[in-house]
Write a structure and sequence with these properties.
333 residues; alpha+beta; three-stranded antiparallel β-sheet; three-stranded mixed β-sheet; 44% helix
Length: 333
């Protein structure tokens, strides 16, 4: 038996749609949609959104439903703009471990949406269609505009962490963020975002907040590293994929530090990769010395780790440069 037309339309939309959209597609009234939803036990997360029955909707499905609820109904994409933003967007991107209680949405400044205690709505005069991307039918801010929105609610340290994670996990660049800063007038938190961009520009590539903090603590102790991560070339005649990067280091004296955070080094695959890297380094003829720094080293035994790093740097400098400490001219900038 052929399923009812409304059910066909709902399935073709991924199992989630607005009442108005379904009514227009099926050529029936919105009341008819609501009656069928009630009779067949459809999921009704918001007053204007229905979905296929599901035992336990996921946080992602709830965010999708919230975006549908807040979208305009004119049929003009530029006028109906809505995007998931802030902590909800970080959750969709896999950066936040859990979704916030309220779904964070951003709308154009002139748009109105019916108040709902499950929604946290921001109106922005900076929002336009170019700021929004759509994945799995969910519209959310691209990383650079997302940092603009996050700047309003984050302190510098949290904003820097957000930026580092977005730079590592997505295709966004600092140039993209600077373009957002240069576009139009100032926005809440723009000063904080400018500071974060300037800091990250100065240090080069950084893959974690722990790595950034380690670099700053070494700098405060008088130890400067090459800008960004240290490139270790593949051995002559060896496979090209044996080339690698160390988190911190000084290439001129063949010294590096790997910053081992639990988030990046706890899975079986990560442990396997770490072992392979260590074995490759041992095979290189250039006599590299690599230390491993953990959060515990940085927080609980910093003086001991700093002393060990100083000793290795001095020994490597004598070995490779013939003097007890690398000069500023030996660093890669």
């Amino acid at each position: 038996m052929r399923p009812p037309p409304l059910l066909d339309h709902l399935r073709s939309r991924g199992g989630l749609a607005t009442v108005a959209d379904l009514a227009a597609a099926a050529g029936c009234s919105q009341r008819a949609v609501r009656r069928q939803a009630d009779r067949q036990g459809w999921w009704c997360p918001f007053s204007d959104v229905v979905g296929l029955p599901r035992a336990r909707p996921s946080a992602r499905e709830h965010i999708h439903a919230a975006a549908l609820q807040a979208a305009g109904r004119t049929g003009d994409p530029d006028r109906d703009l809505v995007a998931v933003t802030r902590l909800s967007a970080l959750y969709l991107l896999g950066i936040a471990a859990s979704a916030p209680t309220k779904v964070d949405l951003v709308l154009p400044a002139w748009r109105y949406v019916k108040p709902d205690p499950r929604l946290s709505v921001t109106r922005s005069s900076h929002l336009d269609a170019a700021d929004i991307t759509v994945r799995a039918n969910i519209p959310y801010l691209k990383p650079a505009p997302l940092l603009r929105d996050l700047a309003a609610i984050r302190d510098v340290d949290r904003l820097r962490l957000d930026a580092i994670e977005l730079l590592r996990r997505t295709s966004v660049t600092l140039d993209d963020v600077e373009a957002v800063l240069a576009h139009g007038s100032a926005f809440p938190g723009s000063g904080r975002l400018r500071r974060v961009v300037k800091e990250l520009r100065s240090v080069g590539r950084v893959d974690s907040a722990l790595e950034y903090r380690a670099r700053q603590r070494f700098r405060a102790a008088g130890i400067e590293f090459d800008r960004g991560q240290v490139h270790v070339a593949a051995p002559v005649g060896g496979p090209s994929d044996w080339a690698m990067h160390l988190d911190l280091g000084i290439a001129a004296i063949r010294f590096g530090i790997e910053v081992d955070s639990f988030a990046h080094h706890s899975s079986p695959d990560a442990l396997r990769r770490d072992a392979e890297r260590a074995n490759r380094l041992a095979l290189l003829p250039e006599d590299w010395r690599v230390l491993h720094l953990t959060w515990w080293d940085l927080q609980e035994r910093w003086p001991a780790f700093l002393g060990m790093a100083r000793a290795v740097i001095e020994a490597q400098s004598v070995r490779h440069l013939g003097r007890p400490w690398p000069a500023s001219g030996d660093l890669v900038r």
